[in-house]
Amino acid sequence: MADVNNKKIEEPVENAEKSTATETVEVIGINFREAGKIYYFAPGKLKFELGNKVIVETSRGVEMGTVKVPNKNIPASEIVPPLKSVTRLATPEDIERDARNHELEMDAALICKKKIAAHKLEMSLVATEYTFDNSKLIFYFTAESRIDFRELVKDLASTFHTRIELRQIGIRDEAKMMGGLAVCGRKYCCAGFLTDFVQVSIKMAKEQNFSLNSSKVSGACGRLLCCLRYEHETYEEAIRNTPSVGSLVKTADGEGVVIETKPLASEIKVKFENNDKESVKVFKCKEVKVLKHGQRNVQNDEPLDEDIPTD
Predict the structure, then answer these.
(1) Closest by CA position to 305, among listed 203, 209, 232, 235
(2) Does residue 124 contact residue 53 with C-beta atoms inside 8 Å?
(3) Does domain 96-172 have CATH number 1.10.630.10?
(4) What's the whole-number mean pLDDT along residues 251-277?
(5) Could you state, in order of their start, the residue ranges of all structural domains in the chain?
């Protein structure tokens, strides 16, 4: 009887654990600028489609965003409660108001630049942004050091009669906001589709046989190209399966030393020394057997993009 009773007590606990593990929450994903971060909101009983404009309440105030992820259920563990709710689907009047706000932002930027010059501050204005309800006006700027802009804030507040926020941003954020064309001829990745900046290292450039000249591997922001990250895993896998330069290998033509590698093509160039004569042949990696590994040129402790040397 004791065993039966214990079993009855244990079963509800087990079921509760399963219920918690499978609990899901319906959400929609919204961003507030192109290639901006996607934030989850509770849709309530409303159904939204990709590209819908919606009005939501955020920590900055009322904002209009764009639906990037329509209604979907995700595990409750992936959200940080409480989840804010969508206020409503944006109306034509809301969209018109948002367009007027963008016009006001351009005027505000011109005024702010004049006031920065008047206060003789070493800072560069990058972008200006009104919240949808005009309760806050945000100015994004870059500067080489910390700036005491308290007097500037007072001046701007008396001019615009709303809450003023000045936010210092980094050089990568500046490129994301300003946009432009990269060396490949396409729009900056950060301004076009990257919602978060990826970590890029000089090791990735070395593994892909890029020139380490900073002008060749750096983007307009001066940091390493974000696209170096895209094929990094593919190169790593190919390099692991390719004998390194200096390796002693056995081939159908005898033993030789690897003098060049093409990891993506899975090819190596092998040098032979026979009767005081040198010859070089190309082999597929699967056609050779490694007798002694050479040393890899790429180390794991390479500096990150912030430490790349400049010319």
Answers:
(1) 203
(2) no
(3) no
(4) 87
(5) 19-90, 96-172, 245-292
